[in-house]
Amino acid sequence: GVEQPEDTRTPVDDNLIVVGVSQVGSESVWRTANTASIQNVFTKENGYFLIFNNARQKQENQIKALRSFISQRVDYIVFSPITEDGWDTVLQEAKDAQIPVILIDRKVDVPDDSLYTTWIGSDFYKEGRMAATALDECLKRQNRGEDRINIVVLQGTRGATATIGRTSGFNEIAGEHGNWVILDQVDAEFTTAKGQEQMERLLRLHPDIDVVISQNDDMTFGALEAIRGAGLTPGEEGDVIVISFDAVKAALELVESGDITADVECNPNQGEYAETVIQKMENNEAVAKMYVVPETVFTRENVTKALEERTY
Ligand code: GYE
């Protein structure tokens, strides 16, 4: 983002709707697909001028981008907050400037929900529960429903909505199974490099891991490297059950091959929802406070058809 003087605005054709987008970063395949869905709808042909900023996983960069959008007096802000905390001041500045803020993907924790117009995203808590249910079904297939099951969790960015929801949803069901033991839950920041590094460390610490719950596919790719590196075989028929989130194409291929037992889908196609919200606002139509995108869970049973249609 280029700093703009207070009272100027990016010179654009007055007929275009100016949208400032502050994206978290490019930490994952999911994120790249989310960015593409935004860039595909906010085009000149559709009547938009898009100002896109990639915050490279830093809140301070996002705050800078939002302030720059405010000083350029964009018509709308579309924003995926890296963590839930720390947005009160800058969102108040947007509100004072009468710029509607549309949250996508992750949420903000603010005392006053008039600081944003709407939120479009996933039911992460439900995703966490779906992961636990998929694990339960796998253990039953293996006749291990009553055995002690040692679980480790690779978590995403601390304080991010996806991490909070996936953790609480999974833990809630895990708590109902007295034989499921969560040995460790560690922060691997949603990246392949951290996923591998943390999984290698966990395998050294705990020689008897039965299950890895990995809160996104990128961390899963790293965890699979670590598992193989330790001489173990991932999969329901192997040594370590791997459950993942996002369900990007490269991961669905690993569901098909059996390395990943279940992958809980996270729908990155939020650009079209954000565009619909803006169109409603342009027409003075009512906008809901939240839009939850549809999602499913993939196993060997249903993955083949999904793979044919996956574009990301
Ligand atoms: O699962 C992960 C990305 O917030 C839903 O962020 C998003 C998560 C997604 O880095 O891959």
What does this structure look like?
- The chain is an alpha/beta fold and 312 residues long.
- The chain has ten helices and twelve strands.
- The chain has helices at 29-41, 59-71, 88-96, 124-141, 161-176, 192-205, 217-229, 249-257, 271-282, 303-309, and strands at residues 17-23, 48-54, 76-79, 101-104, 118-121, 149-155, 180-187, 211-214, 241-246, 262-265, 290-292, 297-298.
- The strands form two sheets. The chain has a six-stranded parallel beta sheet with strand order 2-1-3-4-5-11, sandwiched between helices.
- Helix 2 (59-71) packs parallel to helix 3.
- It is elongated.
- It starts with 16 loop residues before the first strand and ends with a helix.
- Beta-D-fucofuranose binds at residues 27-28, 30-31, 105-106, 122, 160, 162, 190, 216, 218, 245-246, 266.
What is the averaged pLDDT score?
Answer: 96
Main β-sheet description:
6 strands, parallel
Strand % is 15-25%
Written as H for each helix and E for each strand, in order along the chain, the element string is EHEHEHEEHEHEHEHEHEHEEH
Sequence stretches where pLDDT stays below 50 over 5 or more residues:
4-8
Helix content: 25-40%
**Spatial order of the strands forming the largest sheet:** 2-1-3-4-5-11
Secondary-structure-based class equals alpha/beta
Q: What shape does the CA trace take?
A: elongated
**Radius of gyration based on Cα positions:** 21 Å
**Ligand roster:** beta-D-fucofuranose
Distance between the termini: 27 Å
Instruction: Work out the helix count.
Output: 10
Total count of strands: 12
